[in-house]
Amino acid sequence: MTGLDDGLVVLTGAGISRESGLATFRDPGGVWSQVRLEDVATPEAFARDPGRVHAFYNARRRQLADPAIAPNAAHRALAELERVWRGPFLLVTQNVDDLHERAGSVALLHMHGRLRVSRCIHCGTTHGADTDLSVRTACPGCGRTGGMRPDVVWFGEMPREMERIEAALDRCRLFVAIGTSGSVYPAAGFAAQVRGRARTVELNLEPSGGRFDEGRYGPATGVVPEWVESLTRR
Ligand code: BV8
C-alpha cells in the first residue's frame, strides 16, 4: 500500500480541463476534429503558413483569457494533494493551459509547453504572451520580427524537462494518469515504464485502453477529489 511518504507522479491531459470549458483533442467535437494537427501543431506547419498557426493559438489563448475559464475541483484537489503529500511529488501536465498553477500547484511541469508564453526563434528568449502573436510581432528581447512563436511543443519536437520526468518516474511508487487518452508519446508510455515498480492508477471519463492497476471512471471533478480523499483520509 503506498503511503504519503512515497514518490508520486501525476500525469494530466486535456480531460482534466474539460469541465473548466476547454475542449479536449480527441473526443467527438474536439480540437483535432476541427483542424488537422499537421496544419497547426508541427514545425513544418509553422514554416509553411505561420499566419494559420498563429490564428490557431491566438484563438486558444484568447479563450483561456476568458474569466469564465477557471480551475475546477479536480485541479484544486491535486493542489491540495501536493500540500499534504510528504514524499517526492511531481505533477506533469501535457496541457498548455495555466489552470494547474492557478489552482495552486507548484511542483508542476508543462512537458508540452505553455500557451501563455512566447519564444523568439531568433534569440531564444521567452516572454509572457497574453495578446495575439503574428509574424509582425517584434521580440521584446532582440527586437526582430518574424520569429515569435507559441512556446509549446509541437509534434516532432522534444518534450520539455524529460530528464526531470524520467528521474521522478524512476523513484515513484505511485503513478496516476488523469484525463488523458494515452495517444501521444512519450507521455503515453509512462505507465508501462513504471509498471511493476509503482502502482498505476487511471482517473478518466472512460477507460483509455491503457493497462493500470486501478481505474476510477467519471468526470474529473468528481473522480479526482474522491481519489485524493481516499489517499489522504487514511
Ligand atoms: C517527440 C502541445 C521525440 C501543443 C501537443 C514514440 C516515441 C516517441 C515519439 C513518438 C512515438 N510515436 C509517435 C511519436 C511522435 C509523436 C506522437 O506521439 N504522435 C502521436 C499522434 C502518435 N510525439 C511527438 O512528436 C512528441 N515529441 O516524440 O519527440 C522524443 C521522444 C521521446 C523523448 C525525447 C524526444 C511531442 C508530442 C507533443 C505534441 N504537442 N500539444 C498544443 O496543445 O497545441 S500534443 C496534444 O495531445 C496535447 O498536448 C494533449 O495534451 C496531448 C495528449 O492528448 P490528451 O491530453 O490525452 O487529450 P485527448 O483529447 O487525446 O484525451 C482526452 C481524455 O480526457 C480522453 O481520454 C477523455 O476520455 C478524457 N476526458 C474527457 N472529458 C473528461 C475526461 N476525463 C475526465 N473528466 C472529463 N470531464
Walk me through what this model shows:
- The protein is α/β, with parallel strands linked by helices and 234 residues long.
- 32% of the residues lie in helices and 20% in strands.
- The chain is built from 9 helices and 9 strands.
- Strands 3-2-1-7-8-9 form a 6-stranded parallel beta sheet. A 3-stranded antiparallel beta sheet has the order 5-4-6, with helices on one face.
- Strand 7, helix 8 and strand 8 form a beta-alpha-beta unit.
- Helix 5 runs parallel beside helix 9.
- The protein starts with 6 loop residues before the first strand and ends with a helix.
- The mean pLDDT is 97.
Number of helices: 9
SS content category? alpha/beta
Low-confidence sequence ranges: none
SSE pattern: EHHHHHEHEEEEHEHEEH
Give average pLDDT, whole number. 97
Q: Biggest β-sheet, characterized?
A: 6 strands, parallel
Helix content: 25-40%
Strand order of the largest sheet: 3-2-1-7-8-9
Shape, please?
globular
Total number of strands: 9
CA radius of gyration: 18 Å
Percentage of residues in DSSP E strands: 15-25%
Bound molecules: ligand BV8
Q: Terminal Cα separation, in Å?
A: 11 Å
List the helices and strands and how they pair.
Layout: E1 7-12, H1 31-34, H2 37-40, H3 43-48, H4 50-64, H5 73-84, E2 89-93, H6 99-103, E3 108-110, E4 113-120, E5 126-128, E6 148-152, H7 162-171, E7 172-178, H8 190-194, E8 199-204, E9 214-217, H9 220-232
Parallel strand pairs: 1-2, 1-7, 2-3, 7-8, 8-9
Antiparallel strand pairs: 4-5, 4-6
Helix pairs in contact: 5-9
The structure holds ligand BV8.
